[in-house]
Amino acid sequence: MNRERIGKILMELRGDTSREEVSKGIGVSVSAVQMYENGQRIPKDDIKVKIASYYNKTVGEIFYT
């Protein structure tokens, strides 16, 4: 799992949506979203599921491609 690649995918999925809106949608802090996007942290499995659901993707499409 490449943190930088995952971060890039997450930023592309977020597009023009604010980090605040995404953080509320998946139930994590804005700083957590920022760390995921900057490649500083990989979300835990339960958060991966929430992120995938939020973006209407599968966990595999985001984290394992």
Please tell me about this protein's structure:
This protein has a single domain (3-63), classed as lambda repressor-like DNA-binding domains (434 Repressor (Amino-terminal Domain)), CATH 1.10.260.40. Helices cover 66% and strands 0% of the residues. The protein contains five helices and no strands. The chain is globular, with a radius of gyration of 10 Å. Residues 18-62 form the HTH cro/C1-type domain. This is Helix-turn-helix transcriptional regulator. It comes from Lysinibacillus mangiferihumi. GO terms for molecular function: DNA binding.
Task: Characterize this entry briefly.
The chain is mainly alpha-helical.
Rg calc? 10 Å
Low-confidence stretches: none
Largest beta sheet, briefly? Answer: none
Average pLDDT over all residues: 96
Number of domains: 1
Shape, please? globular
Task: Tell me the CATH topology.
Answer: 434 Repressor (Amino-terminal Domain)
Helix content: 55-70%
Strand content: under 5%
SS-based class: mainly alpha
CATH architecture: Orthogonal Bundle
Tally of strands: 0
Number of helices: 5
Write the CATH homologous superfamily: lambda repressor-like DNA-binding domains
CATH structural class: Mainly Alpha
**Termini Cα gap:** 9 Å
Order of helices and strands: HHHHH
Pfam family, one: HTH_3
GO molecular function, one term: DNA binding
Organism: Lysinibacillus mangiferihumi
Protein name: Helix-turn-helix transcriptional regulator
